[in-house]
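Closing statement on the magnesium ion sub-project.
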Amino acid sequence: MSEQPAAPLPRHIAIVMDGNGRWARARGRPRTIGHRAGARAVNRCIDWCLAHGIEALTLFAFSSENWRRPPEEVGALMQLFLRALDREVDELARRSVRLRFIGQREAFTPDLQQRMALAERLTAQGGRLQLNIAVSYGGRWDIVQAARSLAEDAAAGRLEPGSIDEALFGSRTSLAGQPEPDLFIRTGGEHRISNFLLWQLAYCELYFTPVLWPDVDAAVLDAALADFQRRERRFGMTSEQRSREVPT
Ligand code: IPE
Ligand code: IPE
Ligand code: MG
């Protein structure tokens, strides 16, 4: 009897952590309490990824559009980021998690920018899980900054415009060098991307759950994984072609 091939594991999971505000409102509490509970769910999610041997996890923590929220909420989120950085970095380094921030860093205070850079340095040796936190991030910004960097090289004579292809373009985007996300999860019930990774999600499997982010635990992530493992990823080919291929 031939053995069943092992169910494929996503190499890279990207998550829109949505629903903190509604979670707090349902409890009659301020939105900030929801964000705090959301930070605890981040830890559960990292634990789950480490337990499953996921290579990369990208979390949408603050979008380029979230600056439009009331200043009190933005301020509270910044405080939460600062405190979480101070609290978690040593533990992440100990567990061999490598932290990176993607997004428009210049939008943050110098203090926060320095702490982000320090957290990246302190975890740079991590080899078990690449953890990308998207802050002041927008998928369109990511594409525009890649285009700008190529245009600068071309204008300076360092690059022949005809040599720009998908691989070169991708190498200037924020998650260059990492496997492409293969599982996208959005909690909170909305069925939209909200300007998260646009370039990188081209062939990602999309999974939506009504569970609010602060309620996310291993069971919710197990369900997303099980759903992913039932899918057939065809990448434009036919089902017959895919079933003839050696599973990777
Ligand atoms: C996601 O939760 C966290 C951030 C966008 C910072 P929300 O704050 O968007 O929560 P809801 O969608 O209002 O419930
Ligand atoms: C997306 O959630 C951004 C993050 C989770 C950080 P939003 O709550 O900002 O998205 P919209 O406004 O519902 O599209
Ligand atoms: Mg929301």
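The beta strands are 12-16, 56-63, 97-102, 129-137, 183-186, 205-208. With this model delivered, the sub-project is considered complete and its resources will be redirected to Aim 3.
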